[in-house]
Amino acid sequence: MRSTFLPFALPDLDETELQEVREVLASGWLTTGPKTRQLEEDFRRLVGAGHAVAVNSCTAAMHLALEAVGLRQGDIVLTTPYTFAATAEVVRYFDALPVLVDVEPETLNLDPERLRERVAALVLHGKEKRLKAVMPVHLAGHACQMEAIARVALEHNLAIIEDAAHAFPASFRGRMIGLPPPPFAASPGPPPSLVCFSFYATKTITTGEGGMILTEDEALAERCRLMSLHGISRDAWKRYTQEGSFYYEIIAPGYKYNLPDLAAAVGLAQLRKAHAMRRRREEIARRYTAAFAGEPALETPRVNPEVEHAWHLYLLRLRLEALRLDRTQFFDELKRRQIGASVHFIPLHLHPYYRGLFHYRAEDFPVAYREYLRVISLPLYSKMTDQDVEDVIAAVLEIVEGHRA
Which candidate in 138, 286, 311, 349 could, as Cys together with 281 as Cys, close a disulfide (CB 3.0–4.6 Å)? Predict the structure, then answer.
């Protein structure tokens, strides 16, 4: 057993981040400024996107994206129950309705066929005019079936707001998450499309707190930028620089969602290491899978061969019928062995707020509910040592061996 606790997640920081932060401190410019604009440009170029807007969280990014596409009270946004609170709560900010669609059993991503069925049912019940957007979540860093989702969106003129909090850098068929899905890219006049990323402390790259919006639509990008800083004219942050002016205009009642240069500086260093850190996470994931693949009580993640997985999370599933303990007890056993773990996610429809609002039952989304009961997230971050990885493997296998049914 380990002598020290292995955290579930740690950022991979070194001298490069410190040097970037020192430059900001030495400059005297701490809030949104040149480093933030550089992060936007570097991130945009790496993905190949047209426009980027840096913000202070992925939650802010999704809120701004929905505001930019014109979400209104009573509108419907289709999304997954298998996600974090932010995905649906930003819909509720508008008094709009997050309508949940069950997930694929293989990836736990939004199921395109169930999406098509759900949209058809809403149209049948006269709700077509309220349909506004679909918000797929690239869970754990595995890309959704965006081509199939986009075809449904095109048929019903739905905006696509991708929750890519877990999915940098990730790709499907060589196309990075952050670009519009091919059916949208090929369409002469597609609905709005925006992709939202997270730079939270546990994510694949971090700014401590932070996020990014990517889009090919300049008008959408400018609306997001405007609303991210009080709805005041776009270059308002320059008003304290030599070329700036005291004068600004309030265009709309906006928000305080801007990313400061101090955070962006960390992001710039992280961005340069992003692909190397992803490769290390993939190496760890492969070692886990190799160690667990032959164990009948465990089920390793299934990865579409056309996907380059970001490996934000390693979602191990327990075959509970083969064990004498449940997932919560398995979690406690890992903790007792000094291994941090987590569960991603408690489905939205199980939470009191959404149960009360929509009268959900656990069985309303059977795949999400069934898989939630048996999934556990193992430590997976580029700063892990080989010994850390071996300690996790040993702990998991020891628990299984000691609790066979």
Answer: 311
Q: How many residues does the chain have?
A: 405
Residues 248 and 305 in one domain: no
Collapsing DSSP to helix, strand or coil, 329 comes out as: helix
Cis peptide leading into 192, omega within 30 of 0?
A: no
Instruction: Give the model's pLDDT for residue 238.
Output: 64
pLDDT digits (tens, 9 = 90+) for 277-306: 999 999 999 999 999 999 999 999 999 999
Do 303 and 252 lie in one domain? The reply is no
Identify the residue whose tokens are 């992709």: 195
> Percentage of the chain with pLDDT > 90?
94
CA 343/CA 165 separation, integer angstroms: 16
Q: How far apart are CA 230 and CA 250, in angstroms?
A: 7
Helices (H), 125-171: 146-155
pLDDT band at 187 (very low <50, low <70, confident <90, very high): confident
Q: What is the mean pLDDT of residues 188-204?
A: 97
76-79 and 97-100 strand pairing? parallel
Inside any domain, residue 53: yes
Same domain, 398 and 348: yes
DSSP assignment string, 203-249: SSS--BS-EEEEES-HHHHHHHHHHHBTTB-TTGGGGGSTT--S---
Please check whether residues 267 and 279 belong to one and the same domain: no
Please tell me whether residues 41 and 164 are part of one structural domain. yes
- How far are the Cα atoms of 138, 139, 152 from residue 142, in angstroms, in the given order? 6, 6, 20
Of the candidates 18, 379, 6, 397, the residue with the CA atom closest to the CA atom of residue 202: 379
Q: Report which of 110, 159, 103 is spatially closest to residue 131, judged by C-alpha positions.
A: 159
pTM of the model: 0.97
The SS3 of residue 159 is strand
* Burial category of 270 from C-beta neighbours within 10 Å (exposed 0-12, middle 13-18, buried 19 and up): buried
- The contacts of residue 243 (CB under 8 Å, 6+ apart) are none
**So which residues are the catalytic ones?**
203
Domain final position from 272, 306, 341: 272
**6 belongs to a structural domain:** no
| Domain count across the chain | 2
**Which residues are paired to 256 by β-bridges?**
229
DSSP category for residue 320: G
Give mean pLDDT, residues 183-205. Answer: 94
- Do 185 and 60 lie in one domain? The reply is yes
Residue 401 tokens, joined: 């061996």
Please check whether residue 297 is in contact with residue 325, taking contact to mean a CB–CB distance below 8 angstroms: no
Q: Which domain holds residue 324?
A: 274-402
